[in-house]
Task: structure prediction
Amino acid sequence: MPGVGEAFISARIRIAFAALVTFALVPWLGPAMPVLPENAMVMVGQILHEILIGILIGTVARLIVSALEIGGMIISTQMGISAAVMFNPVMATQGSLISVFLSLAGLKILFLTNTHHLFFYALRDSYALFPPQEVLPIDAITNSVVQTVSASFRIAVQISAPFLVLGVVFFVGLGLLSRLMPAIQIFFIALPLQIILGLVLLGLSFSAIMMLFLQQLSESIGNFVS
Result:
């Protein structure tokens, strides 16, 4: 789960959170759970069954969140600040400034809008979609992951589309000015203007970026909610 399942978060906190969620779901899921198997191999198979489902739900959420990082990298490149990097706590990797900003903002808005409740609903309803006694539908799972990867890249492009258009227009204009005044370093002089225009455009499109992110995340996680 984004924001809770990060590797740098204390293992005790993650275990306590997992135990708390388990106790909260027991009243709903207790009657639907299979009896304790007598064969140890059957129990191992059931445990692996649940682990794979958890990995699936977590992977879908991570792929959508990664769209903000990819889009932020493209935006940083268009603004000319791609070399400025810092640690991204959401993805646990190094990222550009805009990537870190969008990732942290998306995670904060995820909790502020109570969209994180979808993760708990998905966990609860996953036992109806994937009963513990049945074999996992590998084809459907693979198709879901492929569609999520496609949606992640689509969102990244949609997020960065205004900046791509601005970059093309801006650099074409600089190219024309460079041909008109070859003795002046136009690209060096115009760098502050490039950053300012990028920040202004980011401020104007920030709300739309977050709404698009939440909408796609709700649709992707909502596929597991019956």
In short: The chain has seven helices and two strands. The CA atoms of residues 123 and 178 lie 58 Å apart. Residues 11-222 form one domain. Strands lie at 85-88, 93-96.
